[in-house]
Design brief:
By secondary structure, the protein is of the alpha/beta class. It has two domains: 176 residues, 3-Layer(aba) Sandwich (Aminopeptidase), CATH 3.40.630; 80 residues, no CATH class. Helices cover 26% and strands 36% of the residues. The protein contains six helices and 16 strands. The protein is elongated, with a radius of gyration of 20 Å. It starts with a strand and ends with a helix. About 8% of the residues have low confidence.
């Protein structure tokens, strides 16, 4: 049985619209309406979820409580439209600041794995599907290098590596590069993207020799690949954050196309 490998550059894909971080805490990304997560910041625990309100709007509900506070939990409700941002503190906690910003989401990667899991439950998956998220060039591809050493057999046995590279879903530049070992794979992905309303004029099919980042490494090691990478006017800049530089519609189109690609490939 041939394997499908799906590799995502951690912290390179744009998250879905609701991402929350604290200056004194971790970061969480809310991907699904009504599905909450908890953000811990020192003595404060904040649970958050969001709902959609139509017209690309969101209602974000945050309930928080301090370990040192015996009072009832407090609630914050925010109505946000696509393109809005929010930064706020909490009464009595001057050292904590919460911000809605760009997060290291792996939306398309999660969508593909979810599609594979659904096919498996329905006994329609005819290939093994393996997903990897690794550190990127900022750390010298340490994660990918270790992966390729541990999973060398996938370089020759995988039917295809899908590389989800940097700047996917970027608002400042819609350009999306598709580079694959076989041109037909890029053409197939282009058709899937267009079917999901991604702007056809922004999709560029290029030779696999132009693959960059982790995609380049996989090619150099002999793997068969389909690489997707975007372009970004704010790459590695402080302005590269949600909501100003994240397109919700493009992110969603890419995620749906990738999920459909896995369905097509996983049942082939």
């Amino acid at each position: 049985m041939k394997t499908l490998s799906i590799a995502a550059l951690a912290a390179a894909l744009f998250a879905t619209p609701i991402a929350v971080s604290s200056a004194a805490a971790d970061t969480i990304t809310l991907n699904v309406p009504y599905t909450g997560q908890t953000l811990r910041s020192g003595e404060i625990a904040m649970s958050l979820y969001f709902t959609t309100t139509g017209n690309d709007g969101y209602e974000v509900v945050a309930t928080y409580m301090s370990d040192a506070d015996s009072a009832q939990p407090k609630r914050i409700v925010m109505d946000l439209s696509d393109g809005d941002s929010a930064k706020f503190g909490l009464p009595g906690h001057p050292g904590v600041l919460y911000e809605f910003a760009r997060a290291g989401g792996i939306v398309a990667w999660l969508t593909a794995l979810s599609a594979g899991a659904a096919l498996h439950r329905e006994s329609r998956l005819r290939r093994d599907v393996v997903g990897f998220a690794t550190c990127g060039h900022e750390l010298g591809h340490l994660g990918l290098n270790a992966l390729l050493q541990q999973q060398q057999h996938l370089l020759s046995s995988a039917a295809c590596w899908l590389h989800l590279g940097a700047n996917l879903g970027c608002a400042s530049n819609a350009t999306l590069f598709l580079r694959s070992t076989e041109t037909a794979d890029s053409e197939h992905m282009r058709d899937l993207l267009v079917a999901e309303s991604y702007p056809v004029g922004a999709i560029c099919i290029e030779p696999v020799s132009k693959a960059s980042g982790e995609g380049r490494d996989i090619v150099d090691h002999g793997g068969k690949i389909l690489s997707m990478a975007g372009s970004n006017a704010h790459f590695h800049a402080a302005s590269d954050r949600w909501p100003g530089n994240v397109s919700s519609s493009r992110t969603a189109a890419i995620a749906r196309a990738v999920g459909n690609w896995l369905c097509d490939s996983g049942m082939a």
